Amino acid sequence: VLIYVKNELKVREIEDIPGATGCENYWCEIRTKECEIAIGVYYRSPSATLEENEAMLQSINQQVKNSNMITGDFNYPNINWTNLHSTTDGERFLSLSLDNYLHQHIL
Questions:
Q1: Distance (Å, whole) CA 33 – CA 41
Q2: From CA 62, how far away is CA 20, in angstroms rounded?
Q3: Helices 50-63 & 88-99, crossing angle to 10 degrees?
Q4: What does pTM read for this prediction?
Q5: Would you say the C-alpha torsion 77, 65, 56, 5 has a positive or negative sign?
């Protein structure tokens, strides 16, 4: 995973994120004159194990209250974001997203 940041911005890697082990993720803090923004990015492989899925969900659940932005490629194709329904594979991720008021934005 990676995050691109303009050269003009001050960025610092955040290495001590509690609960962020066991899943692929990266965290940084971007500082501007006006604010500081913590950004996390996750990657979930379509072939992720149950342990990797659980680690990612626990990490997101811990960080969602401390972070300004969580992004990633979560690879849950069975989630229907229009009617907020999912098969078993994506149910926990969908519930986590809804419980924490997270929204899907595709650019």
A1: 23
A2: 9
A3: 10
A4: 0.85
A5: positive
